[in-house]
Design brief:
It contains 10 helices and 18 strands. By secondary structure, the protein is an alpha/beta fold. It is elongated.
Length: about 425
């Protein structure tokens, strides 16, 4: 059984870097009394950036490494020095790779262009204690921790970028045809499923005129439902603007060319209604061993359905030399190669002032507060310092959490759970 190293799907986890924490420090210098707070800010976490690379043709590397994390930002330093920003993580993928959010299946980005795409943004660095100095709070002993970076479970799908896709049953002559009209050199032999991976070839029409053609591995009945290699092949014709439907008009293997033609179109409909409506030129191959009656009968059948028909023979070059110009002129009438628009919407984290929270009564004297933003403030709070706790208490009051606790009947010395922390409620 033939095997292939062509991998066109993978699922990976990516995480941008966490922002560095702000630091609590105070100016210390000889002959300078009460130098004041001088804690610097944390650096920004690194982004996760994807780039299309024409030197890559498979997603195989992502089958073995599944987790990718950018560098965290450095913590702040004394003397108001900010920590260094984390380095971005650049991930290179084959051109045509579509990234989808794994759970929803929504498109995050289509790596068809040459511009780098930021998929996960690094967290902002936390403020050092120098930001919290006021006339009434001159020695703040608390700082803000850095924010976490975005993270995604991504499904990657490689969809070959080609203007023209060669489709048809196995062994109808597609590989021979693409080897004759382009510089592509697929392996060719007289057995089914010779081609196990899509083969791209650039077809030259003139000095500055060309198009990209893809030899899509042969389809079989049930491909749209995943029979055989199913979706793995159909995925690669989704971008093609024009389909060249190659049919063995001679029926030399005991097959009915009309039935083959209808079956392939049925598989296209089953996979994508949009794909089934893509323009087609039907190429009746192996005309050198077909009878005139076979060719004429199939030609009439195809043209009655509104398709353009061309008799060819990849073995003798009959009709081959004029084919590129015909295809090129047809392409000039068609829209550009399909690019998938981003569908996934990032959660809105811009308005920290919104500060959502939920308060849940866990028992007679137990309450749980779910507020990730508050946990980050708490992580930078010095619980042994009065001013630090006072600042934290202000956040509880301004956000409405204290009002909600009172509304749910909190009493003095009841236990309040906030993340991993526990507090006794005091009036």
């Amino acid at each position: 059984m033939a095997t292939s190293n062509f991998i066109d799907t993978a699922t990976i986890w990516v995480r941008a870097g966490k922002g560095g924490d702000g630091v609590v420090t105070f100016h210390r210098e000889k002959f300078v009394a009460a130098g004041g707070p001088d804690g610097g800010d944390g650096g920004r976490g690194g982004d996760v950036v994807f780039v299309a690379d024409d030197n890559l043709s498979t997603l195989m590397d992502f089958r073995y490494k599944r987790k990718y994390a950018a560098q965290d930002g450095e913590n702040g330093r004394a003397k108001r020095q900010s920590g260094a920003d984390g380095d971005d993580l650049v991930i290179r993928v084959p051109r045509g790779t579509v990234l989808k959010e794994a759970d929803s299946g929504l498109v995050v980005a289509d790596l068809s262009g040459s511009e780098p795409v930021v998929i996960a943004k690094g967290g902002r660095g936390g403020w050092g204690n120098s930001h919290f100095a006021t006339p009434t709070r001159q020695i703040p002993k608390f700082a803000k921790p850095g924010l976490p970076g975005e993270e995604f479970q991504l499904k990657m799908e490689l969809k070959v970028i080609a203007d023209v896709g060669l489709i048809g049953f196995p062994n109808v002559g597609k590989s021979t045809l693409i080897s004759m009209i382009s510089a592509a050199k697929p392996k060719i032999a007289n057995y089914h499923f010779t081609t196990l991976t899509p083969v791209l070839g650039v077809v030259r029409v003139g000095p500055e005129q060309s198009f990209v053609c893809a030899d899509i591995p042969g389809l079989i009945e049930g491909a749209a439902e995943g029979v055989g290699l199913g979706h793995a092949f159909l995925r690669h014709v989704e971008r093609c603007r024009l389909l060249l439907h190659v049919v063995d008009v001679s029926g030399c293997e005991g097959r009915d060319p009309k039935q083959d033609f209808e079956q392939i179109n049925h598989e296209l409909v089953g996979f994508s209604a949009e794909l089934a409506e893509r323009p087609q030129i039907v190429l009746g191959n192996k005309c050198d061993i077909a009878t005139e009656e076979q060719i004429a009968d199939f030609k009439a059948y195809v043209e009655e359905k509104g398709y353009t028909f061309m008799p060819i023979s990849a073995a003798t070059r009959q009709g081959i030399d004029k084919l590129p110009a015909i295809v090129y002129n047809r392409l000039k009438e068609l829209p550009p190669v399909k690019v998938y628009e981003a569908e996934y919407k990032r959660p809105d984290k811009s308005a920290e002032g919104q500060r959502p929270f939920t308060v849940t009564r866990m028992g007679d004297h137990d309450f749980a507060v779910d507020a990730p933003w508050l946990e980050r403030i708490l992580a930078g709070t010095n619980v042994e310092d009065y001013e630090s706790l006072q600042y934290f208490q202000t956040q509880l009051g301004d956000s409405g959490i204290l009002d909600e606790l009172v509304a749910q009947g909190v009493e003095e010395e009841d236990t309040i759970h906030i993340g991993e922390y526990e507090f006794d409620y005091l009036y």
